[in-house]
User: Fold this.
Amino acid sequence: MSNKVDPNLIRELKEFGLKDASKCYNCGTCTATCDLATPENPFPRKMVRYIQLGQREKILRSPEPWLCYYCGDCSTRCPRGADPGETMMVLRRYLTSLYDWTGFARKFYTSELFEMIAVAVVGVLVGIGLLIFRSGPINWVHTDLNSVWPSAEIEKADLVMAAILLFFLLTNVYRCIKIVMGDYFSKVPISMYFSELKLFVINLFTQKEFGKCKDRQQWIVHLAIMTGYASIFLMVVVLVNGLPLGIDWLKFQRGWASLGGKTEYSIFHPIRLIGYYATFAILYGTTYALIGRIKKSKPQYKNSHGTDWMFLVLLQLTTLTGILINFTRLLDRPFSTYALYVIHMMVAIPMLVLEVPFAKWAHLAYRPVVLVLLSVKQKFIAQNEQAKDTVLEAKPAV
Assistant:
């Protein structure tokens, strides 16, 4: 690993929101305070020191930025006001930009104007597309979304969008794996990565490491947002075209049938109950986080980045417009439903195709991936050490 000092590192990190790292004098209070720091991974202190010394390559290979969930204890107790929790957040933004081969992530994190323009442009294109590529004649008597945008066509568009999204996300995750593993990337057998997939799933859906922090309320908020969004995403993408449970999600989502005005599924249908949970979880989590950022009530809310606001606002608007669509649909208000559907898609699609692979949402993928990589690397090193010991023991004494 290169030990080259980069004097421009701090200047570059300031573009991602770095403010107070130079105040740190390495007393170690932050590391002693952190419930997740270990002797092997003593963060945030080590990462702050790397920044001060311009150790870019070491930061690239370090898993520590992704082991931090930003509970804020370290920032609260820092005697110098260096805000190490926010510094770790800055490093996650920086690393996300380096994993992304397109350059969009860097633009989003270093230019709020660029992010707003990108979201607006995609939203407008989606709106224009929905207005141009629609079916006819439109049912203005009863609300029937299929009369305007047939489910079959929306399903095709969903699959195309999912393929694009996954392509960018997975290629960026692949770069993350190569960067974090470094020289071990080509040495570790693929089977060892697959053996740790259980760890990925557990950490993705439970965020259990976050639960070890003192501020459990923050863990609940984080978990609510993540599980709520993941539930909706899986139902839309995985259940599209009736796979794999024989459920046509779009018919379920649109609900109102023009013949008789009845819903496809009962109010107690398991998938409908998941939808209710997802709606409540997202609204609770995003509202708590937005109010916290407005009031700056906690350390992690005092230095809100533009991408933080964009992520929360888009997610809440997507949920609220979805709720309004259901109300107007049940009230059988065709024009209101169709108009809200266009607005809903203009908000939801930019969030999916831009925020998920390139900005805040990408953290949900990188964190469990890095936890897997850390486990894989530790096991690989342990196996090699054990093999060396076995060879030495087998050698005859001279």
Summary: Residues 363-394 form the longest helix (32 residues). Confidence is low (pLDDT under 50) at residues 240-250, 256-263.
